[in-house]
Amino acid sequence: MKPILTAQQLSITVRRLAQQVLEDHIDLENTVIIGLQPRGIYLSDKIVAEIGKEIPMEQVKYGQLDITFYRDDVRNQLHIANATHIPFSIEGKKVVLIDDVLFTGRTIRAALDALLDFGRPQKVELCVLIDRRFSRELPIQPNYVGRSVDALVSQKIKVFWQDKDGKDEVALLDN
Ligand code: 5GP
Ligand code: MG
C-alpha cells in the first residue's frame, strides 16, 4: 500500500474542502449538502461538522442519498435497503454532492438522476476526497477535490475512517 494521505493530511484536507464549500456558498442559505451513501457519508459528516463551526448548524440543510436503486446495473435486484434521507425540497437550490472517490462518474450520473425526485436544483456541484482523474467514462468533473490521483484501473484507493476502520488514512492499493 502506497500512502496518499496521512491522518494529519486527511484532517487538513477535509477542513479545506469545508472552507472551499463555505467560500462559494457563504451562509448556505440557498444551498443543500447531500452525502452519497454508503461511503461518502463519512466525508460529508466531517465537512458538515466543520461548516458547523462557522455557521449555526440549524442553517445547514444536510441530506444523504442512496443511489443503489438508480444504478442501471442493480436496478432489477429486490430488497435493497434505501438509506436516502432528504427531509427538504431541493427545488431551485444549489446542491453540493459529496462522495469519497470519483472514478468512472457513473455513481454521480445516477445521483443526478435520483436527485430529480426531490425537486429540480438550480445548480449541482461535486465535492470528492479523491479524484481518479484519468478513469472517467462520462463528462463529469468535481468542483472541489481533496487530492487528484493517477491510479491504474487495476488499483484501488483505500479510504480509512477512524469511526469505521480504526484509523484515518488514504492509500493506494496494488492488485
Ligand atoms: P464511479 O461510479 O465513479 O465509477 O465510482 C465511484 C463510487 O465507487 C464512489 O461512490 C466510491 O465510493 C466507489 N469507488 C470507486 N472507485 C473506488 C476506489 O478506488 N476506492 C474507493 N474507496 N471507492 C471507490
Ligand atoms: Mg460509494
Concise account of the structure shown:
This protein is of the alpha/beta class and 175 residues long. Helix content is 26%, strand content 29%. Residues 36, 39, 99-107, 156-157, 159 line the site of guanosine-5'-monophosphate.
Q: What do these coordinates show?
A:
The protein contains four helices and eight strands; from the N terminus they run βαβαββαβββαβ. Strand 4, helix 3 (106-115) and strand 5 (123-132) form a beta-alpha-beta unit. With 175 residues, the chain is α/β, with parallel strands linked by helices. The strands form two sheets. The chain has a five-stranded parallel beta sheet. The protein has a three-stranded antiparallel beta sheet with strand order 1-8-7. It is 26% helix and 29% strand. Helix 1 packs across helix 2. It has one domain: Rossmann fold. The longest helix has 19 residues, at 7-25.
Shape: globular
- Cα-to-Cα separation, first versus last residue: 10 Å
In what range is the share of β-strand residues?
25-35%
**Any idea of the CATH topology?**
Rossmann fold
* Main sheet summary: 5 strands, parallel
CATH class: Alpha Beta
Query: How large, in whole angstroms, is the Cα Rg?
Result: 16 Å
Describe the secondary structure blueprint for this structure.
Elements: E1 2-5, H1 7-25, E2 31-36, H2 40-51, E3 61-65, E4 94-102, H3 106-115, E5 123-132, E6 144-149, E7 156-160, H4 162-165, E8 169-173
Parallel strand pairs: 2-3, 2-4, 4-5, 5-6
Antiparallel strand pairs: 1-8, 7-8
Helix pairs in contact: 1-2
The structure holds guanosine-5'-monophosphate and magnesium ion.
Magnesium ion is lined by residues 36, 39-40, 99, 107.
